Amino acid sequence: MLELKFVRDNLPVVEQALKNRNASVDLTEFIGMERKRRELLVEVEALKSKRNTVSQEVSRLKTSGLDAEALILEMRGVGDRIASL
Length: 85
What we know:
Oligomer: single chain
């Protein structure tokens, strides 16, 4: 089994190896799916970072005795978005 990174970085080599084995595989779909996967990973990491930052802010607000309900509700939406990805 080839690693995704190897296939992504050596696409012409992999395509030629497949041709040499008489395998007819179109890697354009793989490239599209890999690109989408990487975009989703970036989005998930950004959302997690936002969630962590806001969690610290919520903690600060609660210790100050201020209302943090709006931020908590917003972060529930972020958590749901992360789960859906």
